[in-house]
Amino acid sequence: MQKKVKVKPNSKLQKIEEQIDGSLTVHLKSPPVNGKANEELLKILAEKFDVPKSYIRIKSGLSSRQKLIEIDTEI
Hints:
The protein has 75 residues and is of the alpha+beta class. It has one domain (2-71): YggU-like (Conserved Hypothetical Protein Mth637, Chain: A). Helix content is 19%, strand content 35%. The chain has one helix spanning 36-49, and strands spanning 2-8, 15-18, 24-27, 56-60, 66-71. A five-stranded mixed β-sheet has the order 2-3-1-5-4, with helices on one face. Belongs to the UPF0235 family. InterPro entries: DUF167, YggU-like_sf. One of its GO terms (cellular component) is cytoplasm. Pfam families: DUF167 (PF02594).
């Protein structure tokens, strides 16, 4: 499964908002420094989709706020 994700780092609260088009807006507490926000993003998405972090990959947008995430849901 692939999801478009818009990341908002340095937020006060950590939360996920689902948009009408199926994409996600993820508010992260971490700053976008040294991959901290990406690590937090993988962790929060793993919890939401109930899969290990290793099943989630950032396909594109590694250093961007707009990301394409691939989630391997088949175990």
